[in-house]
Write a structure and sequence with these properties.
The chain is of the alpha/beta class and about 325 residues long. The chain is built from ten helices and 13 strands. The protein folds into three domains: about 80 residues, Arc Repressor Mutant, subunit A (Orthogonal Bundle), CATH 1.10.10; about 120 residues, D-Maltodextrin-Binding Protein, domain 2; about 100 residues, D-Maltodextrin-Binding Protein, domain 2, CATH 3.40.190. Belongs to the LysR transcriptional regulatory family.
């Protein structure tokens, strides 16, 4: 099988996941016309239609669904073959790719990565800035080994995961508002959601997590308020600086605003659905380093835990189960 054919199959799997030529082309880092031509040639070569195109809606034909499942299995088998080849040569692949948006600032994940490094000193960890809506396709293509994302607890996951992808909710967190100690609301024990319509608010930008951003707006609309948003930031540290300088109250998760900077306080906010950390991975994953990471991520005391005030130090302390070192 030629490399060019493998690339086309990867692109087919992306389109089968996204069911949208524009999004699929962006993920594959090719132009939309090039992707369309690849799929057309693939269909011509097979002599069947893999996609149905009706009224600008794209869907898999029955033949396309069969082909998708078969190609996904083929790619998985090729990955396993590579691993067995390395093992036969006396080596093992200690690399692992994680899909995560760093803005989330998850202490649970950073602590787990540190523990993994202790268990596998030769580990090579790489990060891809991939939103959870794209975890399924990234896992199917082998771009990442584990996806870590954030969703709102009361909303469905932003997209269904493909067959062969497992998902687990790892922990949850409530919301907080960051403000200077001199602010008139700094002494409040808790704040209601409707205060977002009366105070200047700094929000994480929609590009950081579109489904969570839309969920916030939906909850506010349901409560009959319009948030008085004065700034949307894609950099948490800049948002904190804006709040420190008095531009507005910064909305964030309990795990990202666990410890308030000097001269500032955080106040719990009621009325928004809790945030949940989710992990996604390939169901047939057999590499030891990936399985070890998932095990550490789901340690008792952390699985489905409430991260209302779990700092990185507390998370490391909770993870006391020794990890086996590779031979």
């Amino acid at each position: 099988m030629r490399i060019a054919e493998l690339r086309v199959y990867h692109h087919f799997l992306i389109l089968a996941q996204e069911l949208h030529f524009g999004r699929a082309a962006d993920i594959a880092h090719i132009t939309q016309p090039a992707l369309s031509q690849q799929i057309a040639r693939l269909e011509d070569g097979l002599g069947v239609k893999l996609f149905a195109r009706e009224q600008r809606q794209l869907s898999l034909t029955p033949a396309g669904a069969v082909f998708r499942d078969g190609i996904a299995q083929l790619m998985s088998d090729l990955d396993r073959l590579t691993e067995r080849t390395l093992a036969a040569a006396g080596g093992e692949d200690y690399s692992m790719a994680i899909g995560i948006v760093e803005y989330a600032n998850l202490p649970l994940v950073s602590a787990t990565m540190s523990l993994l490094q202790q268990a596998y000193p030769a580990a090579r960890l790489t990060r891809h800035n991939i939103h959870c809506v794209h975890h399924g396709s990234a896992l199917m293509r082998g771009v990442i080994d584990v996806g870590i994302g954030i969703v709102l607890a009361e909303r469905q996951p932003p997209m269904p995961l493909a067959a062969g992808i497992d998902s687990q909710r790892v922990a949850s967190s409530q919301w907080r508002l960051l403000m200077p100690q001199t602010h008139r609301l700094a002494g409040a024990g808790r704040l209601p959601l409707h205060c977002l319509g009366h105070e200047n608010v700094i929000l994480p930008a929609r590009e950081v997590n579109p489904s969570v951003y839309d969920g916030i707006m939906h909850a506010c609309n349901a409560a009959g308020i319009v948030p008085n948003v004065v700034y949307e930031t894609s950099q948490a540290l800049f948002g904190i600086q804006l709040a420190r300088d008095g531009l507005g109250l910064m909305l964030g998760s309990a795990f990202s605003l666990d410890v308030a900077p000097p001269g500032m306080v955080t106040v719990p906010l009621d009325g928004l659905p809790a945030l949940e950390i989710i992990a996604n991975w390939r169901a047939d994953e057999c590499r030891a380093i990936v399985k070890q990471f998932l095990e550490l991520l789901g340690l008792e005391g952390c699985r489905h835990a409430e991260l209302g005030s779990m700092s990185p130090a507390r998370t490391r302390k909770a993870a006391t189960k020794p990890a086996p070192r590779p031979s």
